Amino acid sequence: MNFPEELKYTTDHEWIRIEGNVGTVGVTEHAQSELGDVVYIDYNGATAVNQGDAFGTIEAVKTVAELYSPVSGTIIETNDTINDAPESVNNDPYGAGWLMKIELSDPAQLDALMDAAAYRALVGH
Amino acid sequence: MKKTHFHSLHTSNGAKMVSFAGFEMPIQYPKGIIHEHKVVRNAVGVFDVSHMGEFEVRGNDALAFLQKISLNDVSKLEKGKAQYSAMCYPDGGIVDDMLVYHCGDYYMMVVNGACEEKDWAWVQENAAEFNDLAVTNVSDEFNLLAVQGPKSLEVIAKLTDIAIADIPYYNFAFGNCCGEEMILSRTGYTGEIGMELYFKGGEEKATKVWNAIFEAGAEFGIEPIGLGARDTLRLEKGYCLYGNDIDNTTNPIEAGLGWITKLQKGDFNGKEKIAAVKAEGAKRKLVGFVMQTEKLLPRQNYKIMANGAEIGAITSGNISPLLGKGIGLGYVAAEFSAPGTIIEIAARNTTFPAEVTKLPFL
Question: Are B108 and B142 in contact (CB under 8 A)?
Fold first, then answer.
């Protein structure tokens, strides 16, 4: 499985890509594999979130899962076209399948997230 | 954990294996459940369902025994035909649903893999009161492949001399297919045309049959299908799944299985209770419903609400890959069971609207 080196990972199987003070967030290839075919992302409308807060729900054929913010901050964008092609979460989890962008309020939180090697060890791939 | 004789074929096809009915079974292959679902609806797919249980029933009391244990009227079952039925406890709760095959000088019961152990106990308990009767659990001897989809019969036709087209739905034939003696049964759990192939033998024979089917089916795009798509396929057709939609707490009348419950045929297990529920009218009914929003997929155990009050619970739910909508089955209070009734599904601390609909969904 592919876990890009430049990303940080959470134990909830999300990734975050940092550009300046903004993080782009999605679910990992391992997560999409466990979920099976993704069919809908239901954002809950949250904007100001603390680390670990839910920002939506991911509906997949095999199960439903909550989406948790990897960091604290302000959600500035959600992927509004994701439900036109929810399978992009399966096919391109680190690209077209991104889920939200967040302006970080506490960038130091990133230090406690996993790098690719640590996440790979966690999921055993 | 038991393995079927197709186990190494599943893993070499990249299947994700799960524990089911005491077996390690494929839930899906790499392309996923929705893809597999469409393969079966549009072309042809192959399911390993060797976890199913098979019991053979022999002797002069075989019919009398089956009449007692089965809801349906086995006396109406002719040689070479299969009959959908179920077994009940005396309280009307369902032991399992099943197929009964009339094989000439004996019968075969085919039951759910997950129920095999308790079904066998129930069969033996009921068999004890008959003298000229022999019941045999042959579950471990049979391999079972379901070849399903609009191209399925064309695939099988290439592998046998039997005139497949002459076997109507819910009929079967004994014959040679893929070089092996087997039962070719025009049955399935997908709502598509198809064959279920029962044959004995170990991994070598199983592999030979599997490979012959896939070679013959290559021109039609044949693929292996896992339990995940088996579930979405049966749900789209509104077929009950034991353990979800029916169990020992549900009565066949509530479950919409009145059509297999022949109250006129004489005495059988559960008759009194079932007749009473029928006479009084079921207080709750198993219904199908379609979500009116994309936001929520219905899932087992979500509460069903109406006017702010709980009226039932979901027993099966998922997306219909063909309708692109969430669909489900669940029990609701009888007054909410009419098609067109708007109900609400409770989840995520809110409710989502759904409409009760006729079955099948497609």
Answer: no
